[in-house]
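User: I'll paste a sequence; please echo it back and then give the predicted structure.

Assistant: Echoing your sequence first, then the prediction.
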Amino acid sequence: MWKMILILFSISLGTIYTVRIGGSGYNLQIAEVLLFFLFFIFMARSYDSGIKIQVNLFEKIFLVLQIICGTYAILIFLWSDYGISVFPGALSIFIGFIAFLFAKVLLKESVIAYEIANRFLLSSIVLQLVLNMGLNLNTIDNQFYALKVASVTLMGESNYISIFLGFFFLYEFISRKKYWILFVLISILGIFLTVSRGAILSISFSLIVYIIITLFNSKVNKFKTILSILFVIFIALFLFNKTIVGVQLLTQLTYGFETGNSAGRDVLLHNAILQFLSNPFGSGIVLDNDPHNVIIKSLRDLGIIFGPIYITLLLYPLYYLFNYKVIRYSNTTIALLVGYFSVIIHSLVEIFYFNSSSIIWTVCTLAAINNMVSLEKKKRFPVDSIY
């Protein structure tokens, strides 16, 4: 359990060193170093004891496709204008391969370690937000973008970290494990401190999906669900109307809907599409002119053949979420699927999935989803663990 906690918690600690590669820099993350170190130790011990990593057929295909996509991402340097600058992005796919294998070992048939690790990550992110905004309180002029500038942590800026926070909120709110109310409140605080419009919208869409599932799921206590939703609405209304951050966030949400303002993302999307059309076999995984859309970025970076494959590797949990069987799933499984749905929605308007920290967390989440869906199919024992 402690290994999973260390890996996910270290994501919040950000970069340890920046390595220059070609015309770009690779931010070596503390989580990467820790992952490689722990995985190396595990492999050395496994070799001596003969322990094998157990993966099913689907997961074997997933891992093989990761290797193929990663290899292709490296080969793109042969024709890309970015040259060897595409190597750091390609490396993130191989990091995901290692992280997925290790997550399978650490989680086995339980997601308890993953749940606790996420709580450590959540607490670290929000604590950093509170400290940073508190230290800069005198320099903030209570305007929207001034608040966003102050909303940073070691792992990244407001829009990026709000993707994690949206997942944490939904997972805690839906799974309702021990102390869930505390961590729901912590995640709500974090979301408002990031002043993220994308988080509010992705959470809203995800809650609508959850409510629809709840209507047909006999395992969900509908009365408690209604009370929980009313509780969250009350907290949100208070924050939107009684806090400076909430008022600014609501103003910007209203402004965006009324004017169609996309904060320049339409231009980035247009340029990325033109880049894809001019080079349909991929330009390489780079942050240059990032379109803030996981689908367009995958196509632009990996091309018309491997772009869709990589998109499938990231988005396949949608199959489980929108399958009719979801109405028979446990709270834990639904929480994972709905929470991950919010990540997908948010990644359509923000940068995600293409750096090592987001990939490490993502594949750990995918491993947890696979475990829970597998248990749902077996139904050998209750899957809603309480710790």
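The two ends are 13 Å apart (CA to CA). The chain has a mean pLDDT of 86.
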